[in-house]
Amino acid sequence: MKIGILGAGGIAATLAETMNKMSEVECYGVASRSLEKANTFAKEHGFTHAFGSYEEMLADKEVELVDIAAPHSHHYRHMKMCLEAGKHVLCEKSFTVNAEQAEEIFRLAEQKKLLVTEAIWTRYMPSRKLIDDLLAEKVVGEVKKLTANLSYPVSDKERIVKPELAGGALLDVGIYPLNFAYMHFGDDVSSIQ
After folding, report:
1. Can you spell out the DSSP letters for 43-100?
2. Which terminus of the chain is less hemmed in, N or C, by CB atoms within 10 Å?
3. How far apart are CA 111 and CA 119, in angstroms?
4. Is 125 helix (H, G, I), strand (E, B) or coil?
């Protein structure tokens, strides 16, 4: 599968490192708002094509799937662009900044018969199956309550402190404990605090 990455920052570099180890994936293209940045990224991470705009990459018929590695404040707009260009989409977390945007993206993907999914890495770790198996076997008894938290310094992270980037801890780090709960217990939740 020929994959393009929309964005050429740190998350994109981490993804590229993983993709380069996958035999069924071709690191085809990377798009940035700067052709120079895209060229540098492509050379450093083994991509065959660099694009100086997102639209240019999306117009390339060879790109089959696009990973969106831009700030989450832009995910909705970028996913919409990709789907309208006929590309399958893997979008970094947080998927969108609200439910209304997510519902619209899912409707568009269904209409276009394209895959769109959130690339939240914790869903694909081996520990997920291990925890699910232990819960199913009731090794710890019947679970009635979950306390989950994740924290790290955020004051120096522009994407968290700037409202115009959909800033705030919930969409950046808070999404991990919420996803952990949903992964293992489903979405029949009586209270989140």
Report:
1. HHHT-SEEESSHHHHHH-TT--EEEE-S-GGGHHHHHHHHHHTT-EEEEESSS-SSHH
2. C
3. 21
4. coil
What long-range pairs does 172-180 form, CB within 8 A, spacing at least 24?
A: 172/72, 172/94, 174/150, 175/93, 175/94, 175/120, 176/120, 176/122, 176/150, 177/148, 177/149, 177/150, 179/93, 179/120, 179/122, 179/123, 180/122, 180/146, 180/148
Structure-block tokens of residue 50? 């660099």
- Dist CA 95 CA 102 (whole Å): 7
Does residue 161 sit in helix, strand or coil? helix
- The length of the chain, given as a count of residues: 193
Cα 38–Cα 159–Cα 15 angle in degrees, nearest 5: 45
DSSP at 172 = I
* CB atoms closer than 10 angstroms to residue 166: 21
